[in-house]
Amino acid sequence: MEDIIAGICVNFITEVINFFSESKARSMVEMETSLKQKADQFIVEMIKVYFKGIDKAIEEDKAGRRKKGIVIERKEDDREVYTKFGYIEFNRTYYYDKRREEYVYLLDKAVGLEGYERVSRTVSAELIGHAAETSYGESSRHVCDGEISRQTVMNKIRRIKGLEMEMPKEKRKVKVLHIEADEDHVSLQDGSSAIVPLISIHEGIERKGKRGQCKNIHHISSYGKGSEELWLEAAEWIYGTYDIESIERIYIHGDGASWIKEGLNWVSKAKMVLDRYHLNRAVIEVTGRHQELRKEIYLAMKDGDKEKFKQIIRVMLRESQSDRERERIKNFRRYILNNWEAITIYGEEECEGSCTEGHVSHVLSSRLSSRPMGWSRKGLKDMAELRAYYCNGGRVEARHLESEEEPYKLSRKVLGKATRAFRDFGMEKLNNIVLLRNGKVTPLFRHLKNIQYDGYLF
What we know:
Elements: H1 2-21, H2 28-60, H3 62-68, E1 70-83, E2 86-97, E3 102-104, H4 106-111, H5 121-131, H6 136-144, H7 150-158, E4 176-187, E5 193-202, E6 205-208, E7 211-214, E8 218-221, H8 227-241, E9 249-254, H9 258-261, E10 270-274, H10 276-286, H11 294-303, H12 306-318, H13 323-338, H14 340-348, H15 356-368, H16 377-391, H17 412-418, H18 420-424, H19 434-437, H20 443-454
Parallel strand pairs: 4-9, 9-10
Antiparallel strand pairs: 1-2, 2-3, 4-5, 5-8, 6-7
Helix pairs in contact: 1-2, 2-17, 5-6, 5-7, 6-7, 10-13, 11-12, 12-13, 15-16
């Protein structure tokens, strides 16, 4: 085993020296690409040796396996795993566990490889990170040159667990808190559409030059959850993050939908605010033939003059030319009157404007609905939650993909036997290299001597 390790090291050193010894100037691009390939291949070969050592040590631990009721079923089974360094192909022993009545690869369990998985958890986390921003296929091309299928990327996303943001250790104190709620309309694979809600919690808008930015924003989104479940999650974040006693008012901005008003039942000190985007859209749509009345409608709402507003609506109804137009006007009247306090609040309190559409566009639409695609219901739920997590500043790591399979713990004796070749391999092993013994001084000779005595390469 020591000779194998020495051969791998010498081959790597030789390739690197030969790369630099050619009589031409190497560009930075050549160094970054070519040397990375050589380094990756070196690591792959060392991992294969390490796996072989562990597999052999487990196999030779007959007494330890006998106590656990584990016997050899067959040897030299192939496996291939894609890692950050490329594909690793190796052999391992197949065992039968008499106590659990199951067949297992103990090497796989010892090093944290799940059965039938072809991609390491680290690579899976990178694939998911890219998939949160772009398509499954593009994610594969970014991370592994397209060697992993889109189906595999999707399957990795469906295995994510524990995407919760940590709450601050000390609760923040603010006087005003804003909650903006809206939804995205997403196409499903069966041709229908689905509504994906989004709740965004922040401490107000701070200006950075000409642009505004929501301070300490936190997004909550999913598909298939009820409004009560979403608002419970929002309430838990608010009560866990902020000192409620210091908050004087909480404003819930939205279009007045019933699921948004549900938040008033879950968050204390909350008031509803009809966001200007939906309000302006409603006014513009209903006054298509009565543009001269728009200013009067806005003034009536600004002054809180409900009778004046009703009078304008009566005029519009008298002048309507079709049943369809009259129905649209009545729906508009109902919409405004049902949200009257959420409209007049602009003239009574400094509740600021909202950017609900901007949040939906940034968090959801940019990935879910801006391009023609159809989602499965499960995929839509997973991606909506992943998008919210990433927009909150979270990043998927290998721990989010941890296996539910129980690992095989190696005893100190077995582990010591498995790694002995690496421990026993010292720089003196390089004395066995013919190049060092023949006395001929070459650039490679000097570099190997440096490794042997000083422990460095260049």
